[in-house]
Design a protein that fits this description.
This protein is of the alpha+beta class. Helices cover 35% and strands 22% of the residues. The structure holds one RNA strand of 87 nucleotides.
RNA sequence: GCCGGGAUGGCGGAACUGGUAGACGCGCCGGACUCAAAAUCCGGUUCUGGCGACAGAGUGCGAGUUCGAUUCUCGCUCCCGGCACCA
């Protein structure tokens, strides 16, 4: 073998070998134990960045590890190919999104192949392929039949200059990013999927997902946000105003009600009250995001309307308030300023009355005039509440709910924070919604035999509305029911639809007669799903929902799509931007910016290389196309090879942790691989190796052999259970350090070295597959190391005669003792107390207690 | 604002179940090899004091529990992810 490590030669050779032997083609063989390992598929933004490299390397390590454990592994790859960036690119360059997207896919596929990932490319899919998205349409129609898909109005960002709907990302500081115009909120009709029907099941399902990170399960549970409470109806002149509350016990303290600006009562109040109308108008400005709504100053206006308190009959004023969300509950709240902090602040601000109705069990009610914050506890008892006085929370809620129910003014109810999933997008580059609008027949579903509704691929968006709506060939269609002239729906689907079931399609690839087939039953659920923590809620929740709907339609047997989940931390990089006078934003890649740092190491100033003018540092953020802060792996791969890039990415931090990008340390990864290579070359050049006789080892050989098997155990656990690839690599590095100290001239020296070397190659194989492929063959093995069996631990090699224990005095390290590994407590204690370093600290003091932690330490408590 | 997570040497990180803080690597310092450089190899490297043996301090900040806390509890600060039309 070459005694130089040459990744530029061995990497293409290994890849060619795997290609020629179809090593990573997954066979649908249901007699074998399967392992479906899936990384979240990428958006084809143009080129890979280090976040992708990290994600796909982790997936590849896990795939190859399970493959070496003998499992039938499926690791597919595809493209989340619809979406906004393609339209933005089209506006910038005039290239149709279809061409831009397919060019990007070709480029990024080549990048993935260069990195040597063991992917089954025969199953590749792109969500913009009609063969894929036709099933979105087909299943949308099934959902529509089952009442899961339905139509209602929803709020969007409206750019009044471009006359177009903007994504949240396209609204910067309340202005459209292209036009700089102040954005307005608009209500338009949209299709929704009834995910709230599954809310309880989606919460309950989390319990069984013990292969998911606890934090993700918590986030999903909080997102769904189940709360039990009472819907209270306040009678008024034309009906009843419904509000939902979890604190019905405080009903007697309600002093007004507040409704959202979009609420029908607000609209009615505005009709003859210009102040209310002006306020509603004001609420209609700015963005639609919850973050924006939650951080704005809480404001409101009174209306001339009142509602009747359902228990006392008192008239309560109706306010319109900007903090009441139409999307949550009934779009109205009862205000109990004494016992809700937001209401309290609102009352102080507008001089509204405060009425205390809960007191601490052993205290007096707070004085409304002097209290400084709301009294929030549920552990008190009611006061100033007439017949309910003295009741504690649960009894008070029950009594009040029951009285309300008797008056038809309230009912116990469960409310979710989760809202139904709006899937309509007023955009071109997405999956067409298969519906036709007919003057006579109304909304008509496209018949199954006319699917897919093909998206024309030659349009070029210009930022002013959806070009699909201006495309006659697409829009003009005969009504499927009556044949009259009709119009196609021009909204397309949210791209989360595409990603909610792609993992099923990989398992049913090539079937053009059905969305999924029996192969999905074999491969699913995904045994290991790997992707960024940014998808902890939406993508993962939508997928869990979608699969349940497919289950209920009889298409798959599974409840949950992903058995184990590994959420990768974000790879961060600096973000630099510049805003022009109109408020438009442009991002600069960190590679094209020159910075100075202050004495704390933070970015103090930054200028663009192209013009030397200042740019703004926006802190650190996820590498992404939109922030233009990605680092392309090409340079690193060209300079060091794919194996070094992979090794470095794995070694630099554990996968769940977010990572501020830096290539410092890449040299260490390269150096390590060169050492492994050189050691193997030297070993092989020294000729044949005798068979290992474990009984004939000298002390040094026995130690190295023990270290070899300790390393096998450690790496198996780190990869298989802990996913800490950094510590797995560190363990192999330690073994290699020991090997380079080891003298092979003893009787069994070469044999023990051979065993250690083979272990190193096998243990590294999932992480640096090309080098190990070559090394494995150099060590005299046939085939590829990717097909070799994972090494097993020889328990007899792990046995030790003596162990080292640390001795502390009062918790401080004072010495070390070596004891027989089967020494009992008394022996250990005696040895510890006899240790000279320990004795020094025991002079003149009394030993009060000796704590022995077996195998670890002794702590002498003295004083 | 709300939900979730994070913070350890000059840097990335390790310490898995409350038990030796700093494994492994980078960088740096010194040495070997070399005409020289690169590469490679050897040694050192948390901070403070000390020639040294050694001692003291130390895991974002402030409290607490414990024989013992990076790890558990409470209160903060800063950073990251998500907040429903970026994907």
């Amino acid at each position: 073998m070459d005694d130089q490590y040459r990744p530029d030669q061995i990497e293409p050779a290994a890849q060619a070998w795997w290609g020629a032997h179809h090593t990573f083609r997954a066979l649908d063989d249901d007699t074998r134990e399967k392992f479906y390992c899936l990384c979240m598929f990428p958006y084809p933004s143009g080129k890979l960045h280090m976040g992708h490299v990290r994600n796909y390397t982790i997936g590849d390590v896990i795939s190859r590890f399970h493959r070496m454990q003998g499992r039938n592994v499926l690791q597919p790859m595809g493209w989340d190919a619809f979406g906004l960036p393609a339209e933005n690119a089209a506006m910038a360059n005039g290239v149709p999104p279809a061409k831009w997207t397919r060019d990007n896919i070709a480029y990024m596929r080549a990048q993935l192949q260069k990195l040597g990932f063991g992917l089954d490319w025969e199953r590749e899919l792109a969500t913009c392929d009609p063969a894929y998205y036709r099933w979105n349409q087909w299943f949308f129609l099934r959902m529509r039949e089952r009442g899961i898909a339905y139509k209602k109005t929803g709020v969007v960002n409206w750019d009044p200059v471009d006359q177009t709907v903007l994504a949240n990302e396209q609204v910067v500081d309340g202005r459209g990013w292209r036009t700089g115009a102040l954005v307005e909120r608009r209500e338009i009709p949209m299709y929704y999927l009834n995910i709230t029907r599954y809310a309880d099941e989606l919460i309950e399902g989390l319990e069984g997902l013990d292969g998911w990170p606890e934090r993700v399960r918590t986030m999903q549970a909080n997102w769904i946000g189940r709360s039990e409470g009472v819907e209270i109806r306040f009678p008024h002149a034309d009906g009843k105003l419904g509000v939902f509350t979890t604190r019905a016990d405080t009903l007697m303290g309600a002093t007004w009600v507040a409704v959202a600006a979009e609420h029908p009562l607000a609209q009615r109040a505005a009709a003859d009250d210009p102040k209310v109308a002006a306020f509603i108008d004001e609420c209609g400005r700015g963005g639609t995001t919850e973050a924006e709504l939650a951080t704005q100053e809480k404001k409101g206006v009174p209306t001339r309307l009142t509602v009747e308190h359902p228990l006392t009959g008192a008239a309560l004023p109706v306010w319109v308030a900007n903090y009441v969300l139409m999307a949550y509950g009934e779009g109205a709240v009862m205000a109990v300023p004494a016992h809700d902090q937001r209401d309290f602040e609102f009352a102080r601000k507008y001089g509204l009355p405060i009425r205390t109705v809960v007191r601490a069990g052993d205290g007096a009610p707070l004085d409304p005039d002097t209290m400084e914050e709301a009294f929030l506890t549920k552990d008190g008892v009611l006061c100033n509440s007439g017949k309910y006085d003295g009741l504690a929370f649960p009894a008070a809620v029950a009594a009040i709910a029951s009285d309300l129910e008797a008056k038809d003014c309230g009912v116990l109810r469960v409310q979710y924070r989760l809202r139904d999933w709006g899937i309509s997008r007023q955009r071109y580059w997405g999956c067409p919604i298969p519906v036709v609008h007919c003057a006579a027949c109304g909304e008509v579903p496209v018949p199954d035999d006319q699917l897919p509704v093909l998206l024309p691929e030659d349009l070029v968006p210009d930022g002013a509305g959806n070009p699909l709506a201006r495309c006659k060939e697409f829009v003009e269609v005969a009504c499927p029911q009556c044949g009259a002239d009709a119009r196609r729906e021009t909204d397309t689907m949210d791209t989360f639809v595409d990603s909610s079931w792609y993992f099923l399609r990989f398992a049913s690839f090539g079937n053009d007669a059905a969305m999924v087939d029996e192969r999905a039953a074999y491969w699913l659920p995904v045994d290991q799903y790997i992707g960024g923590i940014e998808h902890a809620i939406l993508h993962l929740l939508y997928s869990r929902f979608w699969v349940r709907v497919m289950r209920d339609a009889g298409l798959v047997p599974h409840d949950e799509p992903f058995r184990n989940l590994l959420t990768q931390g974000m790879v961060l990089n600096n973000i630099y931007s510049r805003r022009d006078d109109a408020g438009r934003v442009r991002y600069f890649n960190p590679a094209e910016v020159t910075i100075t740092r202050n004495d704390r190491g933070e970015v103090a100033s930054a200028t663009a290389d192209e013009d030397g003018k200042p740019v703004q540092w926006d802190g650190m953020g996820t590498m992404s196309k939109s922030k233009n802060n990605g680092v392309d792996p090409n340079d690193m791969v060209a300079r060091y090879g794919a194996d070094t890039a992979r090794l470095f990415m794995l070694f630099t931090s554990p996968p769940e942790q977010s990572l501020e990008w830096s290539d410092a340390g890449i040299e260490g990864a390269a150096r390590f691989l060169r050492r492994v290579w050189k050691m193997t070359a030297t070993h092989v050049a020294a000729g044949p190796v005798p068979a290992l006789d474990a009984a004939a080892l000298d002390e040094a050989a026995r130690t190295l052999r023990r270290r070899t098997h300790e390393t096998i155990a450690k790496v198996s656990d780190d990869i298989g259970r802990r996913y800490t690839f950094n510590t797995a690599i560190a363990a192999v590095m330690e073994l290699l350090n020991e090997m380079s100290q080891f003298d092979t001239s003893g009787a069994q020296g070469r044999a023990v070295e051979r065993e250690a070397l083979e272990a190193v190659v096998l243990l590294l194989a999932p992480m640096v597959p090309h080098a190990c492929h070559a090394l494995w063959q150099a060590l005299g093995h046939e085939g590829t190391v990717a097909d070799a069996a994972w090494p097993s631990v020889d328990e007899t090699a792990l046995v030790r005669d003596t162990i080292e224990l640390v001795v502390q005095v009062n918790g401080k390290l004072r010495g070390q003792v070596s004891v027989a590994s089967d020494a009992d407590r008394a022996e250990i204690e005696r040895a510890a107390l006899a240790e000279p370093g320990v004795q020094r600290f025991l002079e003149g003091v009394q030993v009060r207690k000796v704590i022995v932690v077996p195998g670890r330490l002794v702590n002498v408590v003295a004083g």
